[in-house]
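This section describes the prediction task in plain terms. A model, or a person checking by hand, is given the sequence of a single protein chain and must write out its three-dimensional structure as a string of C-alpha cells. No templates, partner chains or ligands are provided. The sample shown here is typical of the held-out split.
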Amino acid sequence: MSSSRTKLLTVWLAALLLSGGLAWAGQRWPEPLSIDLGWVVVLVLGPPALLGLWLLLGWTSGTGEPGPTGDGGESLHSGKEQQG
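The expected answer:
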C-alpha cells in the first residue's frame, strides 16, 4: 500500500474512532448541552475544510516527477524532429 493511502487510512480510522467515542459519550452525558452556533459551524465545517486544505496542499506540491504512466507530460518528439 502506498504511503499516501496509509496516511489517509490512518486519519480516516482515527476520525471514525473519535466519532464513535463522542457518540458513546453523548449517550451517557447527564444533561443536554446548550447549542452554540459558533461551535456548531466550527465542528461541522472545520474538519472538511481542513481535509480539503490538506488534499489541496498535497496535490499542488508535486515534485514534477513522472506519474504512473512515465510520461511526465513531455512531448514524444524532440524539438529537431518537429522542426524538420
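For orientation: The chain has a mean pLDDT of 81.
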